[in-house]
């Protein structure tokens, strides 16, 4: 759940601070709307590969790779001098996010099928949890200290 919360936080975080990012990087309204789309496009592109990699290398390796990829993407986005690099960072964040979900599915898969629905629902609760925390915390932090 916490890995997906970290992913949700990373992906939603830029959208939560979109008003500040818009001014700083001179984004249009379309550019602001594209933030989430670019992140989720990246996630879509790596979800299948993440599943195959999880089967081949194991969930721990793939989960670590996904989290490190998200961290690299957030770093690129947060240090971007212009909109182009910002969106590259957002796309890389999305690539990492797409890798995380298949690995967490394997890690959360209980031995007994009777508990699978409960376990998977608790795991998936991490996605909105990360978004809620990003929306609740980042605008205030961004206003006080800057979105970066």
Automatic annotation (TrEMBL):
The keyword NAD does not apply. It is a multi-pass membrane protein. It holds the Pfam family MFS_1. Residues 1-148 form the Major facilitator superfamily (MFS) profile domain. Keywords: Membrane, Transmembrane, Transmembrane helix. The chain crosses the membrane at residues 26-45, 57-78, 84-104, 125-147. It is found in: Cell membrane. SUPFAM superfamilies: MFS general substrate transporter. The keyword Transmembrane helix applies. Gene3D superfamilies: MFS general substrate transporter like domains. This is MFS transporter. It comes from Pseudonocardia benzenivorans.
């Amino acid at each position: 759940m916490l890995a997906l919360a970290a992913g949700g936080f990373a992906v939603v975080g830029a959208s939560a601070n979109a008003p500040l990012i818009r001014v700083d990087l001179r984004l249009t309204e379309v550019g602001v709307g594209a933030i989430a789309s670019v992140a989720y496009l990246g996630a879509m592109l790596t979800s299948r590969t993440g599943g195959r990699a999880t089967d081949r290398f194991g969930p721990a390796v793939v989960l670590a790779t996904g989290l490190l990829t998200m961290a690299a993407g957030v770093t690129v986005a947060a240090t971007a001098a212009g909109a182009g690099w910002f969106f590259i960072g957002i796309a890389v964040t999305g690539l990492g996010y797409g890798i995380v979900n298949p690995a967490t599915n394997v890690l959360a898969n209980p031995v007994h099928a009777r508990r699978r629905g409960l376990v998977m629902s608790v795991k998936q609760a991490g996605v909105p949890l990360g978004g809620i925390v990003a929306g609740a915390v980042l605008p205030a932090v961004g206003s006080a200290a800057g979105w970066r």
